[in-house]
Amino acid sequence: MDSSSKPFKAGYAAIVGKPNVGKSTLMNALLQQKLAIVSPRPQTTRNRILGILNGIGYQIILLDTPGIMHPEYSLQQSMVDAACTTMKEADLLIMMIEPYPPDELDWTIMKKCGQLSMPKFLIINKIDRVPKHTLLPLIDEMNQTSVFEAIIPVSALKQDGLQDLMDTLLEAMPAGEPLYPSDIISDEPERFFVAELIREKIFYQYGEEIPYATAVQIRSFEEHSGKKDYIHAVIVVERDSQKGILIGKQGRAIKSLGSSSREAIENFLQRSVFLELEVKVMKKWRKKFDLTRKMGY
Predict the structure, then answer these.
(1) Residue among 290, 259, 254 nearest 275 (CA)
(2) Cut 0.85: pTM above it
(3) Fewest Cβ atoms nearer than 10 Å: which of 57, 64, 154, 245?
């Protein structure tokens, strides 16, 4: 049977796992475009990010989710809720682990996966970090859970094993018409990704505490034909001391953040921008449900 007679396949594939297992890196690698921000630190992703992968005869809607953890405050609870809700709504479920014996959190997430009825696949990521012979006992142990239809070792960073993953997903994806136009890659507006890119640069530039205490809001996004777009972003922190660290001595830190953020934004938008950054204090915003909602979580 030639490809033209095969039914079109379309559906949602949720990517879940604990923080920092490489979910966003996997989505970016499959899309061949940076859509989700990444950093070496856990809990970088706070929202469900939708990425649309179009190909001949298929449309896979990838759903990158926040890492599932034991929440300690309102923001983390919102992140876990977003991941668990996305799991239940997907047509396929991709759980990711690292190439080491699963810990208590991995087993908890596997149990959640086992309670759902859609096809489920386990991705063992970061295989470039371990000798290949060490994967066999892990694959055997995971097979014995009987939770997953397939177990696929990959390195999302090195883009190793991704074709096997794609073949497996396409085989299991339901038949159906495209759910989104073929010329878009996400359902989020540009201003969402601009805020995320600024937040990513905060993760890379500042110490342990600052990235987790910050949120970014885009107050103004003005497009100007023939001139630079104007973007006014507000970085929200919880304490005056954090504001001081973000700004830095004589404003050097915030200037450096603005420069790296602007470069990333221009690369994403493929046009020039003028970026203005402002820092505001909103005490204990992460711990108050109404304030986390106000921040978009």
Answers:
(1) 259
(2) yes
(3) 57
Please give the structure tokens belonging to residue 235: 């970085």
228-267 pLDDT tens trace: 999 999 999 999 999 999 999 999 999 999 999 999 999 9
- Tell me how far apart the alpha carbons of residues 29 and 35 are, in angstroms, rounded to a whole number: 10
Rounded alpha-carbon distances, angstroms, from residue 232 to 31, 249, 258, 267, 276: 29, 22, 11, 18, 5
3-state helix/strand/coil string of 22-82: CHHHHHHHHHCCCCCCCCCCCCCCCCCEEEEEEECCEEEEEEECCCCCCCCCHHHHHHHHH
What whole-number distance in Å separates Cα of residue 175 and Cα of residue 188? 25
Where, residue-wise, is CATH 3.40.50.300 in the chain?
3-172
CATH class of 3-172: alpha beta
- Alpha-carbon distance of 254 to 273, in angstroms, equals 17
**DSSP H or E segment with residue 280:** strand 273-281
Rg of the chain's alpha carbons, rounded to an integer?
A: 20
Residues contacting residue 181 through CB under 8 Å, at least 6 positions apart = none
